[in-house]
Amino acid sequence: MSTAEFDGISVAYDDLGSGLPVVLVHGHPFDRSMWRPQAERFSREGCRVITADLRGYGETTVIPGKTGLEVFAKDIAGLADRLGLGRFVLGGLSMGGQIVMEFHRTFPDRVAGLLLADTSPQEETEEGKRVRNEMADRVLAEGMNPYAEEVLTKMVSPENVRTMPDVAAHVLEMMRTTPKEGAAAALRGRAERPDYRESLTRVRVPSLVVVGSEDEFTPVADAELMHDLIPGSTLAVIEGAAHLPNLEREAEFNDVFARFVKEIE
């Protein structure tokens, strides 16, 4: 693990391999270890893979209150600056995908390729705003354990929880150990997320949209929408996976991503 200090926070990150720079952004409520299978493989196959804990998550500084997607995007830019990255492939899953969309909207010239996994581009609904703010209150009051137990079989399909206990244990551990103040701040920030549909029509780099066939949080229809909006994008539906296909169907996900990376190299 390495750390970078900027804007009053300390960001924990891993920087593996050399070659095409690839920055992968984790979802909520996870940490950079979510991307470990991809970081280990692609750092051996000609990529420089950077994975970082977002502010409020993992081993990065926790800032209570509210953390908007634009703050996360600026943090990625700050880390990229510290690491001397100009243009790079940027990928994210779930909330990480929304951070990637915000980054592209704000810093389009820095993006060499986009991976959007199990995410959605629409602005938050009024009901969604209420639910996210109530959940923020709940995790602050109860901690992360009850929430983690409740959503495990949506993050990982029930069948995969049964047949892939190591994956289920990893996902549960990430959720349980996420600082509650960081999780709550991100929930409040996402309650105010904007609509990214128009900005996706302006994407001019190779783009891969991936979704698990059994994803309840961001269903296949959301992936199809992004695929339709992004010119020339590729859509991959990973069968037998829910919200975390990179862990539930590691080989299939990696094969799809490998073909995508070759387009950019």
How does this structure look, described?
The protein is an alpha/beta fold. Helices cover 47% and strands 18% of the residues. It has helices at residues 36-43, 69-82, 95-106, 126-142, 145-155, 158-163, 165-177, 180-190, 197-200, 220-229, 245-248, 250-264; strands at residues 2-6, 9-16, 20-25, 47-52, 88-93, 111-117, 207-212, 234-238. The radius of gyration is 17 Å and the shape is globular. The protein starts with a strand and ends with a helix. The mean pLDDT is 97.
Tag the structure with descriptive keywords.
12 helices, 265 residues, 8-stranded mixed sheet, alpha/beta, single chain, globular
Determine Rg (CA atoms, Å). Answer: 17 Å
How many strand units? 8
Order of helices and strands: EEEHEHEHEHHHHHHEHEHH
**Distance N to C terminus:** 27 Å
Please tell me what the overall shape is. Answer: globular
pLDDT below 50 for ≥5 consecutive residues: which ranges?
none
Structural class: alpha/beta
Which percent bin holds the helix content?
Answer: 40-55%
| Overall average pLDDT | 97
| SS strand fraction | 15-25%
> Please, how many helices?
12
Tell me which oligomeric state these chains represent: single chain
Question: Order of strands side by side in the largest beta sheet?
Answer: 1-2-4-3-5-6-7-8
Query: Mind describing the biggest β-sheet?
Result: 8 strands, mixed
